[in-house]
Amino acid sequence: MSTAGFTHCALHVRDLDESVAFYEDYCGLKFVLEHGEGDGRTVWMAAPGAEDDFVLVMMGGGEVRHPDKGDMTHYGFAVSAREDIDAIAERAERDGRLHWGPKSFKPPTGYLCAVTDPTGYVVEFSYGQPLGPGAE
């Protein structure tokens, strides 16, 4: 059997345009592709340079999510400096999006905070994990 490639993650979101703006602004993702219209409209986004490797697929018509603070279900983004975590958390606090404040954990978890997107999905920002920018 050949190896399967992990190519995308798909989410139903409450407001597609608001979600696109969030992932551009907070996560630095860029628009890749759009198809369909109305309730069937779908947008693909990716990290710059990774458009052919992995995309976040968002489809409208999703329900708002209400995860509690103990729910560890999340999507992760790495940043290149520890100070970025503090800045993201401060901004998320102002925007009413902070889910977990900055905390330090033993390797491989590192220093992180989490933010909720417009639908309520939890988005983790980390520094010092063995993946992505700031990898240790």
Explain how this protein is built.
The protein has a four-stranded mixed β-sheet with strand order 1-4-3-2, covered by helices on one side. A four-stranded mixed β-sheet has the order 5-8-7-6, with helices on one face. The protein has two helices and eight strands. Helix content is 19%, strand content 34%. The chain is an alpha/beta fold. A hairpin with an 8-residue loop joins strand 3 (42-46) and strand 4. It folds into two domains: 8-59, 2,3-Dihydroxybiphenyl 1,2-Dioxygenase, domain 1 (Roll); 75-127, 2,3-Dihydroxybiphenyl 1,2-Dioxygenase, domain 1 (Roll).
Quick structural gist:
With 136 residues, the chain is α/β, with parallel strands linked by helices. The chain has helices at 16-27, 82-95; strands at residues 8-12, 30-35, 42-46, 55-59, 75-78, 98-105, 110-116, 122-127.
Count of individual domains: 2
- Approximate strand percentage: 25-35%
CATH architecture of the largest domain: Roll
Shape: globular
> How far apart, in Å, are the first and last alpha carbons?
33 Å
CATH H level, superfamily name of the largest domain: 2,3-Dihydroxybiphenyl 1,2-Dioxygenase, domain 1
Largest sheet: 4 strands, mixed
Q: Strands of the largest sheet, in order across it?
A: 1-4-3-2
SSE series:
EHEEEEHEEE
Mean pLDDT over the residues: 94
Taking pLDDT < 50 over at least 5 consecutive residues as the criterion, the unreliable ranges are none
How big is the Rg?
Answer: 15 Å
Helix content: 10-25%
EC number: 2.5.1.18
Keywords: Transferase
GO molecular function, one term: glutathione transferase activity
Organism: Methyloligella halotolerans
